Amino acid sequence: MSIQLLHKKLIKKKLTISIAESCTGGLMSNNLTKLANSSRYFQMGLTTYSNQAKIKILKVNKNIIKKYGAVSHECCKAMVQNLSKISKSKINVSITGIAGPGGGSKEKPVGLVYIGIKKGKTLLIKENKFKSQNRNSIQKSTVRNVIKIISKII
């Protein structure tokens, strides 16, 4: 589904959406707000790039980041759950990952991205392993995946 179709669907169903993103640096929020009337569904976009921002703004427990890392299933889950409490949106999305080109490791390679989506009581945390080492490509693939997932659940 394209962003244009998602845009129409969100408006038609009167759904609201908020985003907390890290490795995409605001790209997801940018995509959701680039069409006119996006204020009818877009509530907030938080670019919580640093660990401190995740802790201070999203109230992610610092022990989660210390134990599992900011790029982890656990951190992604805490981000989306806490965003849901802050935003009160019907759909909440969290994104955390390693877009590269550096910053990867054997356990957490470049291209590892977690996407969290919470709609009502439904919570989905999806691990993605993008093969590209290209930062721009990983960020765009992440956005496409988020659009695809949201389109399926609404």
Written description of the protein model:
The protein has 154 residues and is an alpha/beta fold. Helix content is 42%, strand content 22%. It contains six helices and five strands. Strands 2-1-3-4-5 form a five-stranded mixed beta sheet, sandwiched between helices. The radius of gyration is 14 Å and the shape is globular. The protein starts with a helix and ends with a helix.
Structure class: alpha/beta
Strand content: 15-25%
Strand/helix succession:
HEHEHHHEEEH
Query: How much is the radius of gyration in Å?
Result: 14 Å
User: How many E-type strands?
Assistant: 5
Topology:
Elements: H1 3-12, E1 17-21, H2 27-33, E2 42-47, H3 51-56, H4 62-68, H5 73-87, E3 91-97, E4 112-119, E5 122-129, H6 135-153
Parallel strand pairs: 1-2, 1-3
Antiparallel strand pairs: 3-4, 4-5
Task: Describe the structure using short key phrases.
154 residues; alpha/beta; five-stranded mixed sheet
At a glance:
The protein is 42% helix and 22% strand. The chain is of the alpha/beta class and 154 residues long.
